Amino acid sequence: MEDFSAKFVSQKISKTRWRPVPAAALQPPELFATGSWDNEENKISIWSVGDFGSLEDAPNGEYQGEPQLLCDIGHQGDVMDMQTLSINQRWERAHYHMNPDTHSYGGASCTGVICNNPEIVTVGEDGRINLFRADHKKAVRIIENADSSTLHAVTFLRTTEILTVNSIGQLKIWDFREQRNEPSQIFSLTGDRIPLHCVDRHPSQQHIVATGGQDGMLSIWDVRQGSMPVSLLNAHDAEMWEVHFHPSNPDHLFTCSEDGSLWHWDASMEVSEKPSFFHQGGRSTTFLSHSTNQSVISAWLNNNPTKDRMEITNLVPNQTLSVNSLDVLGPCLVCGTDAEAIYVNRHLVA
Length: 350
Fold this sequence. Notes:
- Pfam families: WD40.
- One of its GO terms (cellular component) is nuclear pore outer ring.
- Keywords: Nucleus, Repeat, WD repeat.
- This is Nucleoporin 43.
- The chain is an all-beta fold.
- Helix content is 0%, strand content 42%.
- It contains no helices and 27 strands.
- It has a 5-stranded antiparallel β-sheet with strand order 20-21-22-24-23, with no helix packed on it. Strands 1-27-26-25 form a 4-stranded antiparallel β-sheet, with no helix packed on it. The protein has a 4-stranded antiparallel β-sheet with strand order 2-3-4-5, with no helix packed on it.
- A hairpin with a 3-residue loop joins β13 and β14 (170-175).
- The radius of gyration is 20 Å and the shape is globular.
- It starts with a strand and ends in a 5-residue tail after the last strand.
- The relative contact order is 0.14.
């Protein structure tokens, strides 16, 4: 934990997201947003990680301060998901339940949101999928009853395709070019239909997808073939809340869990051959996944068992309450917890 700066915020934090920086930017991200849950008054807050001009004067070039609050705004209800945009827009009652007898409307949680500017997609416990544009006041496309179960998360596969995960262990691909409101592909976990809570797409190999769910397992999928995961990896001891590939170094993946852990998965090379990607700290173990034959060479689809090992490091080993959210961008990582604290690491690379 010595690599993290902590800020205690008197709010349970449900979501953390970095403000994106231009691809050509030389500086690491400066701002991030947090959302809270299970508080008397929930908030969305904007934070700064400090003055980058003072890094040269800091010991070892490391920022030693804590995140600084820039502004916040009240939020009705728990913040279930969050993305950052430069355009301000608001859509009321995007998700709802309707009583068929009284034709009255009741609230339904919006459980997931993803942006591919200017398109925004939301999913919810009502099984509805909404496609918005940031410059439009109304939805561009609505898929009513897209799922009979709760949709927990969504990600873009391509400009016109999204992938959703639900509470009965299914992944579904939706193509907005199709007029029919049916998924183009369905994938599922075998067995007890374990709910899936999170999903992320590999940033450069769009057919590779990672998911996590109620059993804490990490699943790797190749959406080009088959309907089952390529790899199932033993992971957390409780629900996995988020999974993220590193956006520019996707052989590194990060997960966080109800069990209080935040794991870094390093699939870049054999454990015995590589230096530590992170500074010393936390638990390190190796896992062996069981992969099927793959036609594309990838660290996540490697079919050679002797090389298919992961090095796993728990970045916050002393946590006991849930780590609900994480985001990683360049050398920086931010996470939020039920311990009413946010943690920032600005120098992941050793």
